[in-house]
Amino acid sequence: MSRRRALLSVAAVFLGMTAQAQAQRPKITYETDEEARSRLALELAAHLTAKLPQLLGRFLSGRQEIARAESSGADPVPLVRELLDSTEAELRAEVQAPDAAPLRDKVTAVFREARVALGLLDAKSAHRRLPAGIALALFNQQAADRETILDKVGAFLREFLDLAQGKNLVVDLCVVGKPVKEAVLNMGSPGELLSASHGRTPIKLLHLFRGLYAYSIEGKGRTIKCQPQKGTFDPCLADLWPSSKPTLDCNFDFSDCSVVEGWSKICEKLGRR
Fold this sequence. Notes:
Layout: H1 3-24, H2 33-71, H3 77-93, H4 101-117, H5 132-141, H6 143-165, E1 170-178, E2 184-188, E3 197-200, E4 203-209, E5 212-219, E6 222-226, E7 238-239, E8 246-251, E9 256-261, H7 265-269
Parallel strand pairs: 1-8
Antiparallel strand pairs: 1-4, 2-3, 2-5, 5-6, 5-7, 8-9
């Protein structure tokens, strides 16, 4: 073999090895925040579809145990408190991803509302419990409503399961302001610092987890803000749990924002951001 042919052969081998190495080199891909939430929502939906039927079964078994205890004359209060505590803790543990904070906050709000309605939680504090005697008295006064309240918790668990099975844990939110146009929007988990701007209204935010959101919206020197202290849940929070096409409609004249179902023509025309 001539020297020239030998050099060409070596060069061909080198180029072939280089091309193979480039082909085997892992590709680095980037995803937007919206894409990341969408991916996480699908993963979480599959996980909850497997886990929630078991949790719901334990909740129903706990209610049967409460009924048996009450029929035998035992104090049902500790059992009810334990059922709510254990069910909430287990459900929150299944949605620990940082982006799923609105889901966790919704879970906390639902169970807190149940405790307050049953007299198991002092309505003035999210942490201090009532003395046992007072709690029992209030519990007995509301005995007729107890099943209704626990029914609501059970319905929430079933709705959660339905949303997971339908891969429907996220929604697209439209935000509009009036009469101020192009107001700056910030949204986040209740109790957390609202530091990241989501853009200017009107705007459509994609693939937001269902649940509770704090927010501030500011334009022309006017601000509407809902940011309760951590661990508290104010009615002003934006609740995206029940909606399919939610709109956060902010009226600066009344210093108020509310979530309404359905998108206006402006929302329908908005590009995805």
